[in-house]
Amino acid sequence: MKVLWKIIxxxxxxxxxxxxxxxxxxxxxxxxxxxxxxxxxxVPGKGAGLPLPQAARPExxxxxxxxxxVSNLREQIGEPDRIEPSGYGYDWWIYNxxxxxxxGVLDGKVNQVYxxxxxxDVEPFKIGQDVKDIYRFTIVESEVGVQIGESxxxxxxxxxxxxxxxLIEYENVYAQLYIDGEDGELEGIRFIDPITLILxxxxxxxxxxxxxxxxxxxxxxxxxxxxxxxxxxxxLTNVYRKSHGLEELLGDYNxxxxxxxxxxxxxxxxxxSHESPVTxxxxxxxxxxxIEHRKARENIAFNYVDAIxxxxxxxxxxAHRNVLLEEDLTHLGTGAYGKYYTQVLVRKTVEExxxx
Length: 356
Hints:
The protein contains 11 helices and 17 strands. With about 350 residues, the protein is an alpha+beta fold. It has 2 domains: about 40-210, CATH 3.40.33.10; about 220-350, CATH 3.40.33.10. The strands form 3 sheets. Strands 4-5-6-7-12-11-10 form a 7-stranded antiparallel sheet. Strands 1, 2, 14, 15, 16 and 17 form a 6-stranded mixed sheet that branches. Helix 6 (about 220-245) runs parallel beside helix 9 (about 305-315). It is globular and about 85 Å long. About 40% of the residues are buried. Residues about 15-20 have low confidence and may be disordered.
């Protein structure tokens, strides 16, 4: 009998150790954008009104779409797979079947193009290009000027920006280079027109003259924008996973509801944390939603311009990157509420995967 009790006690100890070490539910530190958007610094004066020197625009590639009519886009690429709103007044044209491309469209003209697709022509760069080559052949500045009429705007890149989020100026178009800081390669690129760059304010900005801002979406429109951001976060997560040789994650409605509620909770309760004063931690939320899993992970972010910036932020934060690129995860739910973003990633049980 004593032997039996010893065996039972030993099994209990082993199970407790396994439970502690297993780390089934993991939450990273919250990731907040290093740029305080909407806090541009006015500088006395109206601006000199003198044209700033600009490098010649690339002669080929997707940057040529910027500033042109959408009819040109349709002729060369075709109709988008979906069209969805942004929080800045323009629409996103999403291409994600034959190619991976996000195109901003306002009043029938293209104002920006983003891609992380290896097959895309992003002249004068290449997706996957070594960052050392970019520095060797490109003039990289820590301060970049934009001029619209008599108003002047100056973006200042901090040390992190210089390492993984460069801003390169060309004639009437700017290139935002999204660098994978760990691999040292170009992960994605956005070609954007001057006015939209100023609307986004993706870097610290000072200005002389008039500030440019977008109208706040109505509450109904904001819901549509949030749903669009959720889809884009899923798309971009899978683009990055594919480029790193990993399986894509399946979108999961129930996980999306959990993620969405947490983003909403953070916004309405005015906090930024994995731990909610209302719903507890991730384990509590998954239990409440009756979601079975082998392991669960959560990334949250705040105050990023859009889905592109948020996912890139996660990619260049070591702990969040590990979650984003964790090999054996299977499903993803994304939640957006204004500038609050949540990812809930899980590895589901074999039985649950069969049911799906």
